[in-house]
Amino acid sequence: MKVVAPWNCEDAKGLLKAAVRDDNPVVVLESELGYNESYTLSPEAQDPDFVIPFGQAKIELEGDHVTVVSYGRQVGNCLKAAQQLKEKGFSVEVINLRSIRPLDVTTIVNSVRKTGRCVTVEEGWTQSGVGSEIIALLNEHAFDYLDAPVERITGADVPMPYTKPLEDPAMVQVENIVNAITRTVQRQ
Fold first, then answer.
1. CA-CA distance, 82 to 90, in Å (whole number)?
2. Is residue 41 a part of any domain in this protein?
3. Do the domain assignments include residue 105?
4. Is pLDDT at 140 greater than 70 in this prediction?
5. Can you give the residue range of the structural domain that contains 73?
């Protein structure tokens, strides 16, 4: 079983084509809220043979102070947070997992070895989330490189509301990510 979570239309095209070609079951997680975002396909992604292999994360933004790992719609929020923090002198590396199973452990570990810090961001609940698995993997493969504890940013532990005034506080916001990155970078 493979599990993928596209962030934008480029991810969706490449991962869906890979899913159709795979002989095993593939679960595609998509965010309804992401349908409102507008993205364009790169010339590379417009190629009819464009496919994204499973288990291959993408470094969306390179940085030196902290690694932020996310998937799906939250990748966009992580990039917005990184942009806000860039103006304050923070250098944030943003990893778009794209594939949750298999997970690109090498990209995550190499990034954390470079930055020494990590923040995971996901829409789901804290318990049993992808962030928990990433923390376990970092404890196994990069513990000696961590200069601060890994921080998880997740949605609120409540049933998802379907009204905007209740939905916003239940979802991860850019401000939550900015605050977590700031805390993590400032820890000694």
1. 8
2. no
3. yes
4. yes
5. 58-186
Residue 31 has what pLDDT? 80
Q: What's the average model confidence in pLDDT over 68-87?
A: 97
The string over 28-41, giving b where at least 16 C-beta atoms fall within 10 Å of a residue's C-beta and e elsewhere, is: eebbeebeeeeeee
- Provide the mean pLDDT of the chain: 94
Residue type, 2: K
Q: Is residue 5 part of a domain?
A: no
Position 41, amino acid: L
Give the model confidence (pLDDT) of 89-138 as tens digits.
Answer: 999 999 999 999 999 999 999 999 999 999 999 999 999 999 999 999 99
Question: For residue 122, which of 2, 5, 3 has the smallest C-alpha distance?
Answer: 5
The CATH number that applies at residue 171 is: 3.40.50.920
pTM over 0.85: yes
Bridge partners for 11 per DSSP: none
Within-domain flag for 33: no
Which pLDDT does position 51 carry in this prediction? 97
Domain count of the fold of the chain? 1
Instruction: Compute CA distances 36 → 31, 32, 33, 39, whole Å.
Output: 10, 8, 6, 10
Q: How far are the Cα atoms of 82, 89, 117 from residue 63, in angstroms, in the given order?
A: 9, 11, 11
Cα–Cα nearest to 125, from 167, 150, 155: 155
168: alpha, beta or left? (left if phi > 0; alpha if psi -120 to 50): alpha
